[in-house]
Design the sequence.
């Protein structure tokens, strides 16, 4: 490790899926370093491998070849349950479709994130919901909340674990522009105030403009990488 | 601890969301467990009743009945031939050791008439020892004495049912009664033993000597006075087998049976009768239990079916949980505990229903039922086991889901 502040280091990562008899190569040797506290956008057309890359960074999947260091620890060869532990402790996911459990209240959804790491701490869950401005709606179920509010519950669910990195897959993709801006402003202020590391996949250049660095992917390769 | 609470909380959420479905799922287990409890309680109840009846006949009792001789390869029915005699009984009491009492008896169905009332009853010619041997007690009056026996007095002791039929409003003691062709004097009424195996309530007892003089004068070709049974008591139950062996060889000698011939009499101790009967009822109980267990199995298959559907329906939830850090085995245990908890609840409800049914059957007097702790514990553990067994595959299916695909599913 040449730099102690590097939190994510991807070296020559490839990912190949079997498609019947042929193989589909989604990532063709990707190299990325992301520093602690950085705000990075990954952009690119559909099928360019953005989501696959995000899943790999999020330890939901393993690369076919290449090496992945997360906080100086190689995670590309870990077993399923070790990956699950890393997901639980170090990764905070924010999905396009929110992925809240519909039968649980906002509070329970946030607490769910603590079920698999250390146990439920109601006080911390309430604090997390306060940070996203939902103190008044902790007992509401997702169906009783607007899209923007649901995504804010999902952000609270991610921050309650105090993870090393936040991964957001088109977090505003299903929101109207006003709620979208709200969500982005929450994320950027979390970044500004608490120095969180955030990697987000987006189509929206406006959102990308909030980021310190934009990585353009095309056909499984990085085409441009520009710092703003 | 905290972690377990979390898992249980998770499981409870899964179950409480679909209350009706959860209930319907376990209905099969409920019915299965309830029928196991009920049927086993009926089986156990009848076993206990039979054993209690036999116990009331008297302990350390050995009875000999004629019959079981072979006629051209066909075994004669028990009691079908008359081979036991008074002389056999005398020989046994003189020659077989460790016997406390021997009582030959003869029975005959006779009409009893008192005034305008009459009834048919089994009249037993017995000796005074018979009552003690068979645990029969007197309610009023007295048994006939040794003197009355020796002299062949025409006196009778009545079973309670006979007494109430013939003497509904009067004290039967001292009354005259016509029995077949002779007149007897009633000297005692017996204590009731309730309906059951060989109950004395419907019988009449007179001295065997009186019966032989007046009622049934039957003799073997050799001139022996025929009796229909010989009962005897053993001084200690440890001697029972010796007494049976000694009596058997004595009777075989007296009846001139060749070494290869079967016994022409049937000798059995109450212990043996009890053992045989409890074996029969035990088998019956097991059979009933097995039939009920099949419905438990069907219930288990229902649980598996619903669990598979539930896993499919909650694919996305599984994906979310995995993204949040759930390991395969967390998901696996969640669904397994869910299935086990479902069937456990089914087991508990089933026990309550089964118990209530058993109590009802008992209360209505249809049959006597006994619910024992071992059956309850077994039924509940089996129902948990069914949950684990039939939940295993669905839970395994759930745990193996790829989180990325699971998150994408709708």
Sequence:
């Amino acid at each position: 490790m040449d730099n102690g502040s590097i939190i994510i280091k991807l070296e020559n990562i490839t990912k190949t899926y079997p498609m019947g008899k042929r193989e589909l190569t989604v990532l063709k040797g990707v190299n990325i370093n992301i520093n602690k506290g950085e705000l990075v956008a990954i952009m690119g057309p559909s099928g360019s491998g953005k989501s696959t890359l995000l899943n790999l960074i999020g330890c939901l999947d393993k690369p076919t070849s290449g090496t992945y260091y997360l906080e100086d620890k190689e995670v590309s060869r870990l077993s399923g349950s070790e990956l699950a532990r890393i997901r639980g402790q170090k990764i905070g996911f924010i999905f396009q479709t929110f992925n809240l459990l519909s039968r649980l209240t906002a509070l329970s959804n946030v607490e769910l994130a603590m079920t698999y790491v250390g146990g439920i701490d109601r006080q911390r869950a309430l604090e997390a919901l306060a940070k996203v401005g939902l103190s008044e709606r902790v007992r509401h179920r997702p169906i009783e909340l607007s899209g923007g509010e649901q995504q804010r519950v999902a952000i609270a669910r991610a921050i309650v674990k105090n993870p090393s990195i936040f991964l957001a897959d088109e977090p505003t993709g299903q929101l109207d522009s006003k709620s979208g801006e709200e969500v982005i402003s929450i994320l950027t202020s979390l970044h500004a105030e608490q120095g969180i590391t955030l990697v987000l996949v987006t189509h929206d250049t406006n959102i990308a403009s909030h980021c310190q660095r934009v990585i353009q992917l095309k056909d499984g390769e990085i085409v441009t990488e520009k710092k703003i | 601890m905290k972690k377990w609470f979390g898992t249980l909380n998770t499981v409870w959420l899964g179950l409480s969301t679909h209350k009706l479905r959860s209930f319907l799922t376990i209905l099969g287990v409920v019915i299965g467990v309830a029928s196991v409890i009920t049927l086993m309680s009926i089986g156990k109840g009848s076993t206990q009743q039979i054993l209690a009846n036999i116990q009331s006949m008297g302990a350390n009792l050995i009875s000999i009945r004629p019959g079981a001789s072979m006629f051209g390869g066909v075994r004669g029915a028990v009691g079908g031939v008359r081979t036991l005699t008074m002389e056999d009984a005398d020989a046994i009491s003189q020659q077989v050791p460790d016997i406390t009492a021997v009582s030959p008896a003869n029975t005959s169905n006779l009409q009893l008439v008192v005034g305008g009332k009459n009834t048919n009853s089994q009249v037993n010619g017995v000796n005074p020892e018979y009552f003690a041997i068979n645990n029969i007690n007197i309610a009023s009056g007295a048994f006939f004495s040794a003197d009355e026996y020796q002299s062949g007095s025409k006196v009778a002791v009545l079973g309670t049912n006979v007494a109430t039929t013939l003497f509904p409003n009067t004290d039967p003691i001292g009354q005259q009664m016509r029995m077949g062709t002779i007149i007897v004097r009633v000297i005692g009424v017996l204590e009731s033993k309730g309906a059951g195996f060989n109950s004395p309530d419907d019988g009449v007892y007179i001295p065997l000597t009186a019966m032989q003089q007046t009622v049934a004068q039957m003799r073997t070709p050799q001139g022996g006075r025929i009796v229909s049974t010989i009962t005897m008591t053993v001084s200690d139950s440890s001697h029972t087998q010796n007494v049976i062996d000694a009596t058997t060889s004595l009777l075989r000698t007296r009846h001139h049976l060749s070494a290869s011939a079967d016994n022409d009499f049937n000798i059995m101790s109450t212990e043996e009768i009890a053992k045989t009967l409890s074996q029969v009822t035990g088998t019956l109980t097991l059979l009933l239990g097995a039939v009920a267990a099949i419905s438990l199995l069907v219930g288990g298959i229902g649980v598996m079916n619903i669990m598979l559907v539930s896993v499919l329906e909650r694919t996305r939830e599984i994906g979310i949980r995995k993204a949040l850090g759930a390991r395969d085995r967390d998901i696996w245990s969640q669904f397994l505990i869910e299935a086990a908890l479902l069937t456990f609840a089914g087991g508990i409800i089933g026990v309550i229903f089964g118990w209530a049914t058993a109590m009802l059957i008992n209360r209505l007097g249809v049959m006597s039922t006994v619910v024992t702790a071992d059956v309850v514990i077994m039924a509940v553990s089996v129902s948990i086991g069914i949950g684990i067994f039939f939940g295993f595959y669905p839970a395994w299916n759930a745990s193996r889901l790829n989180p990325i695909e699971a998150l994408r599913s709708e």
Notes: The CA atoms of residues 280 and 290 of chain B lie 15 Å apart. Chain B touches chain A at residues 2-3, 5-6, 9-10, 13, 17, 316-317, 319-330, 403-404, 407 (CB under 8 Å). The radius of gyration of chain B is 33 Å.
